[in-house]
């Protein structure tokens, strides 16, 4: 069992590397940013971070991040998640063409 | 986190000058923003490192290199045709499973984390050595602790982390350096469309000796002006538009720089003078509400249709006011005008009609001062996802023209169908949007209906996908091509106008932003507000300002040219006067001599 997880680990690292070097990572990220902005997710986080930090003492980046991280991850709209997952799957699939 | 000096706002919101470090007036200052501490709260570690010139130089050079590398690399991956640094990777077999990788693709070199060896998608780089590492796994912070190195930076945002403070810190020098490095990289990678020449490298303004002397004796005033406007009898439509002008950075800067001095102006019923007076009132020491009576009176005199105490449409008044200010502004012309209104609001639409039979494209270019967006598709139903972006997509969607609506100049005889597409050819520095909420139904309904459908607007929007340039560089798979760095297309929201009630008896209110604080304006009542309240308020009109302004390269500014022309003209007039006077003297002499 541990062998197959380490195989997966190695493949993940490799595909991850290729995606970044290929530029596909940046292209998908660009698309993701614009979709999240259009859905209001980015502005919601901006607003929460600002309002949280107004009364935070001591003010610290780590605290802001901690308070927002789980909400940020769970509030990504389903449709955006689906679209981006498809793009990633496509890239991974292409990398494994025999 | 140290108290942020105003220059971070520069990075977020473009070049807004500030003189004042005052705490936000409407909200209780939190512990760290005591006025006396605002400068001392900076990270002391940066201050001490910067005290040593060679250490400072080392940090700065490293920082510049990292930021420039990332900016170049982002541009190159989004624009594949222009990749500069390439390294071929050869086919190789994966050791574990004999799987073949795709044939060689152009690749750009990528750093890996020195701790976990993974490729870094978001590198954090130590500013003292060559270490690069992951943030989320704590690899970079561990490196800093273990080696005693103090600072690292996020290559993407240029944020500097101090391991002594255990937090991100703000520093004016680093902020400016980040901006100037990114701008410089972008300048090298974008060319003007028509002239095909590069951009002029940005140079900050450095005062001459005379200017420095003049500045020494100037009293600085706070850069924020906020006053409520009294309702003079159903004039909330006027108040909201005036507030959108007051918070418009380009208009504000123009009038605060005394570019239209109402005391020297020779026009009568001059709306431009009214704007000058308005800004004088707003930035005066009093902040009690005042009534814009003379502005209203002048508007009535110039545009009779706006007069009377009935409720007017804010958008109609907006266009009327723009035309009035343009008309009374110095240097305004009817063709390619250079007045402040056109410099601020004027853009261009391009309409491309493609004949379906022969493929000929006819393009028409039209000027525009704002964009009015439909809320419903042609068939009349409300759209499912109502966002500003979806309205813009609908606006720039290809539209089939019926056979009778178009006949191609190239194809003979039979007129076939054609496809028309609108796009934005030139983006103005300030984008004004109006959502068409007031529909005039002709189908026999008595009164026009107001469409209250909520529209989601973003705090920032990238306008690239709706431009002619981007549409013309679309790839085969329908992906929009890369029309230049994002900075040229990013806009930030600064004012929103709301309308509540029905068409005939409603009330206008607005939101506006100063730096990054939002306020709500209801005639004379001004209250601090939040971004979220503003975005949830269901806009009727909204205003965005471009984050980075761009300029025609290697040209003298028109106001300098105008001033030089004025001086030349004045000197010529002086000479003529002098010559005429001399002639009088001569004539008098001749008369005396002759009379003897």
Automatic annotation (TrEMBL), chain A:
One of its GO terms (molecular function) is transcription coactivator activity. The keyword tRNA processing does not apply. It comes from the Eukaryota. The keyword Transport applies. Keywords: Activator, Chromatin regulator, Cytoplasm, mRNA transport, Nucleus, Protein transport, Transcription, Transcription regulation, Translocation, Transport. GO terms for cellular component: DUBm complex; nuclear pore; nucleoplasm; P-body; SAGA complex; transcription export complex 2. It is found in: Nucleus, Nucleoplasm; Cytoplasm, P-body. One of its GO terms (biological process) is transcription elongation by RNA polymerase II. InterPro entries: TF_ENY2 (IPR018783), TF_EnY2_sf (IPR038212). Involved in mRNA export coupled transcription activation by association with both the TREX-2 and the SAGA complexes. At the promoters, SAGA is required for recruitment of the basal transcription machinery. It influences RNA polymerase II transcriptional activity through different activities such as TBP interaction and promoter selectivity, interaction with transcription activators, and chromatin modification through histone acetylation and deubiquitination. HAMAP family: ENY2_Sus1 (MF_03046). Component of the nuclear pore complex (NPC)-associated TREX-2 complex (transcription and export complex 2), composed of at least SUS1, SAC3, THP1, SEM1, and CDC31. TREX-2 contains 2 SUS1 chains. The TREX-2 complex interacts with the nucleoporin NUP1. Component of the 1.8 MDa SAGA transcription coactivator-HAT complex. SAGA is built of 5 distinct domains with specialized functions. Within the SAGA complex, SUS1, SGF11, SGF73 and UBP8 form an additional subcomplex of SAGA called the DUB module (deubiquitination module). Interacts directly with THP1, SAC3, SGF11, and with the RNA polymerase II. Belongs to the ENY2 family. This is Transcription and mRNA export factor SUS1. It comes from Suillus placidus.
Automatic annotation (TrEMBL), chain B:
Residues 1-10 have a biased composition (Polar residues). PROSITE patterns: USP_1, USP_2, USP_3, ZF_UBP. Its EC number is 3.4.19.12. Residues 41-189 form the UBP-type domain. It holds the Pfam family zf-UBP. It catalyses: Thiol-dependent hydrolysis of ester, thioester, amide, peptide and isopeptide bonds formed by the C-terminal Gly of ubiquitin (a 76-residue protein attached to proteins as an intracellular targeting signal). GO terms for cellular component: cytosol; nucleus. SMART domains: ZnF_UBP. Belongs to the peptidase C19 family. This is Ubiquitin carboxyl-terminal hydrolase.
């Amino acid at each position: 069992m541990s062998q197959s997880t380490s195989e997966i680990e190695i493949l993940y690292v490799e595909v991850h590397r290729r995606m970044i070097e290929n530029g596909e990572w940046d292209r998908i990220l660009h698309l993701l940013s614009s979709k999240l902005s259009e859905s209001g997710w980015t502005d919601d986080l901006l607003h929460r971070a600002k309002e949280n930090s107004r009364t935070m003492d001591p003010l610290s980046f780590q605290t802001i991040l901690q308070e927002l991280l789980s909400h940020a991850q769970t509030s990504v709209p389903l449709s955006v998640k689906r679209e981006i997952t498809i793009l990633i799957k496509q890239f991974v699939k292409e990398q494994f063409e025999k | 986190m140290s108290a942020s000096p105003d220059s971070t706002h520069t990075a977020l919101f473009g070049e807004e000058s500030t003189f004042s470090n005052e705490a936000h007036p409407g909200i209780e200052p939190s512990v760290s923003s005591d006025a006396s501490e605002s400068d001392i709260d900076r990270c002391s570690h940066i201050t001490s490192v910067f005290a040593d010139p060679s250490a400072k130089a080392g940090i700065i050079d490293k920082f510049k290199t990292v930021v420039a590398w990332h900016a170049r690399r982002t541009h190159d991956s989004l624009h594949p045709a222009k990749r500069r640094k390439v390294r071929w990777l050869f086919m190789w077999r994966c050791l574990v499973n004999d799987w073949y990788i795709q044939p060689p693709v152009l690749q750009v070199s990528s750093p890996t984390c020195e701790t976990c060896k993974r490729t870094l998608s978001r590198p954090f780089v130590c500013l003292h050595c060559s270490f690069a590492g992951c943030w989320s796994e704590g690899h970079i912070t561990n490196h800093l602790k273990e080696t005693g190195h103090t600072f690292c930076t996020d290559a993407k945002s240029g944020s500097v982390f101090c391991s002594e403070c255990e937090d991100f810190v703000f520093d004016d020098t680093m902020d400016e350096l980040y901006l100037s490095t990114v701008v410089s990289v972008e300048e090298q990678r974008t060319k003007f469309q028509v002239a095909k020449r590069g951009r002029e490298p940005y140079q900050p303004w450095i005062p001459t000796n005379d200017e420095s002397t003049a500045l020494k004796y100037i009293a600085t005033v706070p850069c924020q002006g906020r006053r409520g406007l009294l309702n003079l009898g159903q004039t909330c439509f006027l108040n909201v538009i005036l507030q959108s002008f007051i918070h418009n950075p380009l208009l504000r800067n123009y009038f605060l720089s005394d570019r239209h001095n109402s005391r020297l102006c020779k026009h009568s019923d001059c709306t431009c003078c009214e704007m000058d007076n308005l800004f004088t009132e707003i930035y005066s020491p009093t902040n009690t509400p005042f009534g814009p009576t003379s502005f209203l009176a002048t508007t009535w005199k110039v545009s009779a249709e706006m007069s009377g105490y009935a409720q007017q449409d804010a958008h109609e008044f907006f266009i009327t006011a723009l035309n009035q200010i343009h008309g009374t502004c110095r240097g305004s012309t009817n063709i390619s005008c250079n007045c402040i209104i056109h410099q601020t609001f004027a853009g261009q639409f391009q309409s491309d009609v493609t004949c379906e039979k022969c493929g000929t494209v006819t393009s028409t270019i039209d000027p525009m001062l704002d964009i009015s967006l439909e809320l419903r598709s042609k068939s009349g139903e409300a759209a499912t996802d109502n966002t500003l972006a979806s309205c813009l997509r609908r606006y720039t969607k290809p539209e089939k023209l019926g056979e009778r609506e178009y006949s191609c100049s190239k194809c003979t005889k039979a007129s076939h169908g054609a496809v028309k597409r609108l796009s934005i050819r030139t983006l103005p520095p300030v984008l004004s949007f109006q959502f068409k909420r007031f529909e005039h139904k002709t189908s026999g309904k008595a009164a026009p209906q107001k469409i209250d459908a909520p529209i989601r607007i973003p705090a920032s929007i990238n306008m690239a996908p709706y431009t002619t340039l981007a549409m013309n560089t679309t790839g085969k798979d329908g992906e929009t091509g890369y029309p230049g760095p994002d900075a040229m297309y990013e806009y930030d929201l600064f004012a929103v106008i709301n309308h509540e009630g029905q068409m005939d008896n409603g009330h206008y209110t607005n939101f506006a932003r100063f730096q990054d604080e939002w306020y709500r304006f209801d005639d004379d009542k001004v209250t601090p507000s939040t971004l979220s309240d503003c975005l949830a308020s269901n806009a009727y009109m909204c205003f965005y300002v471009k984050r980075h302004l761009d300029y025609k390269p290697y040209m003298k500014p028109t106001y300098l040219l105008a001033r030089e022309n004025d001086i030349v003209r004045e000197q010529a007039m002086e000479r003529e006067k002098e010559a005429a006077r001399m002639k009088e003297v001569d004539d008098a002499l001749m008369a005396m001599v002759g009379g003897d």
